[in-house]
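Lecture 7 notes: from sequence to structure.
We start with the chain below.
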Amino acid sequence: MDFDAGLLRVRQQLSRRRTPKQLKTPSAQREVVLAPALVTLLREHWLASPHKTPEEFVFTDALGRGLDYRDVGEGFRAAVKAAGLTGPGRLSLHSLRHTFASLLIAKGLDVVFVSRQLGHASPATTLGVYAHLFDQVQHAATARAALEESYQTMTGTQPREPRGPASRPVVALLVAGESGPGGH
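Predicted structure tokens for the same chain:
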């Protein structure tokens, strides 16, 4: 974790036995950009821990070891329940990955950047999973521009700044469980 740069530097993963192991592919090694508010929360959590050397994990067990995957899953399910995020479909840790990708896409970031953030082997993999979202964002932007131009022509007005997040419908699809091709 690089708190100062606001990056999560992915270099290894924990095995089921809590030992470091190689990532599946070279492209899985990456630097994930984090929101400043999240960096602040993570730093506060880490500083409150008795295990806070630069080599130690942000989230640990009482002995300072990385968390067991079962404990992480149980904690996540408990947090989902406590937040009242139950309903149709199952919210999983992997759902958070898809939400992250959809947010990047909805903000207009290109497929190469999104692919690198996810650690995909190539942008083609990212497009195979998220093409429907890239397509939807592009069509929405084109439609908005065409509608605004028509409005200005009819009314003789000047362009106005858009209000509210135009990407909300794209993000809502993913959060609501609309997954698109390949189960993603």
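Points to note: Residues 76 and 108 are 29 Å apart (CA to CA). The chain has six helices and four strands.
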